[in-house]
Specification:
This protein is α/β, with parallel strands linked by helices. It has 8 helices and 11 strands.
């Protein structure tokens, strides 16, 4: 089931889960400072269909793209899809590898298993080990100033004059409405490329790409398990400016939501 929402318009007043016919006159997003596009919600009733839909979207998005750049969310939700994405990248054949940029990281005295880069490295192992992908991770030793400078230098190396920084940016959605390491409106409004933030739960110290860097992408994809996130999804899809995730939306934003209570097939 595909539901099209028109953010910050009359049509967005419909309750969560309601559909609206396509109307270009209403297709406006003002979230994140971008105007002129539709935010779409695609709901899938099973994990396999959710993964397949995301993987098919990745294949379409990377068709004809040389040396793709992907910005990746951490946490536990996207790992099953990342395993499928690794197979997509590993099967791309000859050519330049994909660059996988960790969008945010957990800091402090925590073990490697709690870091986003560990999950991403594990999920994308087939592509990384075959040389079809390269990981751009945050340093977790030394001071935060050095960490910031190192990531800014890596981003500068990846920038291209004729294309956005990223071809796809994958984001999660917290129950509180956060995305990446941006937990408040102040976090999302920070200037520069890198933001040091504080999470409401342990581990509290985080570092994240800024909203401006995350928006520098050809396409944005939210990867969400709907259960427990209903209120956050409603805020995101309504373009609620108090929802930090709204600040990272772009003109090509699709929310892929796993809703195992839904009976209709994903398409």
């Amino acid at each position: 089931m595909e539901v099209i929402f028109y953010v910050n318009t009359v049509a967005s007043k419909k309750p969560y889960g309601a559909s609206a016919p396509f109307n270009p006159g209403l297709a406006l997003i003002t979230a994140g400072g971008h105007t002129g596009a539709v935010m779409r919600l695609i709901e899938c009733p099973t994990e396999n269909e959710w993964i397949d839909a995301l993987a098919a979207d990745l294949v379409r998005a990377l068709d004809g793209v040389a040396e793709p750049r992907l910005c990746l969310a951490g946490g536990t939700t996207p790992e099953p899809f990342y395993e499928a994405a690794a197979r997509v990248l590993a099967g791309r054949g000859d050519g330049a590898p994909a660059y996988l940029v960790v969008g945010d990281e957990r800091l402090g005295a925590i073990g490697p298993s709690e870091r986003n880069a560990t999950m991403i490295r594990r999920a994308f192992a087939p592509a990384l080990e075959s040389g079809r992908a390269r990981l751009v991770a945050w340093g977790t030793t030394g001071d935060t100033g050095s960490m910031r400078l190192a990531m800014e230098a890596r981003l500068a190396d990846l920038r291209r004059p004729d294309r956005p920084l990223f071809d796809l940016c994958y984001l999660g959605l917290g129950a509180d409405g956060h995305a990446a390491g941006l937990f408040t409106g102040a976090d999302a409004a920070e200037a520069g490329s890198v933001v040091l933030t504080t999470a409401p739960a342990r581990p509290r110290a985080r570092v994240s790409l800024s909203a401006a860097v995350i928006r520098n992408t050809a396409a944005t994809r939210f990867v969400v398990r709907r259960r427990g996130k209903e209120a956050a999804l409603e805020r995101l899809l309504a373009g609620d400016p108090s929802c930090p995730a709204v600040a990272v939306c772009t003109g090509e934003t699709v929310v892929y939501a796993l809703d195992e209570g839904d009976k209709e097939p994903c398409h």
